[in-house]
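input
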Amino acid sequence: MRRANGVVQTSCGYTGGHVENPTYKQVCTGTTGHAEAVEVYYDPSITNYEAVCKIFFETHDPTHVNRQGPDIGTQYRSGVFYLDESQKETAENLIKVLREKGLKVATEVTKAKTFYPAEEYHQDYYEYKGSSPYCHVYTKRF
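output
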């Protein structure tokens, strides 16, 4: 996501739950209600929300329920956490397009709650680990 044209900053973290300042260990229990998420800042003079959403839908599997790759649990659910009605409408419209193409989209569209940045070792995880992504594979969908 952070390599996309116009994206100026990303941060891995947790959102959508009921525990303040959760840790990775807490989120992994599946009891906090949080989803692992990415907060994305982009330059609107270069790209837009729809383009960023399309990248989201093309770099993970939106048909999986509570799972991404080998990672299983509610914390790995597919979700768009919107800030305003325009973002909600955009995400819902993209889901509609994907469903019209025959995908059984499981992505939740939910009003954003507080975003808690993940621990430092989760930021730029694949670079930190020196490995290739195993949950995210680009698939052209639009």
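quick obs: Strands lie at 7-15, 35-42, 67-68, 71-72, 79-82, 108-111, 116-117.
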